[in-house]
Amino acid sequence: MVPPGLVSRAALFASIVLASVSNIGSARAESGFPFGLEMTLEAARQPGSKRIPDLDIGENGEAVLELWCKGGKGQFSVAGNTVIFVAGPLQDRGCPSDRAQLDDELVATLSEATTWKRQGDVVSFIGARTLRFRINTN
Questions:
Q1: What pTM did the predictor assign?
Q2: Cβ proximity of 133 and 55 under 8 Å
Q3: What is the mean pLDDT of the chain?
Q4: Among candidates 127, 125, 119, which has minimal Cα distance to 53?
Q5: Which of 18, 29, 30, 126 is spaced 20 to 30 A from 93 at the CA atom?
Q6: Residue pLDDT, tens place only, 12-25
Q7: With contact defined as beta carbons under 8 Å apart, do 57 and 34 qualify?
Q8: Measured between alpha carbons, how far is 53 from 55 in angstroms, rounded to an integer?
Q9: What is the 3-state secondary structure (H, E, C) of 50-89?
Q10: Are strands 115-119 and 122-126 parallel, antiparallel or unpaired?
């Protein structure tokens, strides 16, 4: 017969091990590329607009971009901390020229990024300039 105290200690040990393993898995998920997540650019709203650019990245790297005025699709390819973004055609939605230019510059900067890094809910795309996006958690 097994003493009752030994059974409780074994159960406690098992629950601690399971909790530790699940925390390791979530830490890895929080540091990986944000496949399957939506992110918003860390930027101020433009005068006359309520929109802030966001990216919705699918499980296979396909992306939907909603910019200050334009919208479109693209594709991310990731290997380690290296990233390549290829933009598809953007829909011109009758944008004022200043917002259209900002949209074009944002896509160009994203396309020039060569590396990425994630710190919690913030994903940075790094090239000649760095773009920071915050993962939408709501």
A1: 0.76
A2: yes
A3: 83
A4: 125
A5: 126
A6: 333 333 333 333 33
A7: yes
A8: 7
A9: CCCCEEEECCCCEEEEECCCCEEEEEEEEECCEEEEEEEE
A10: antiparallel
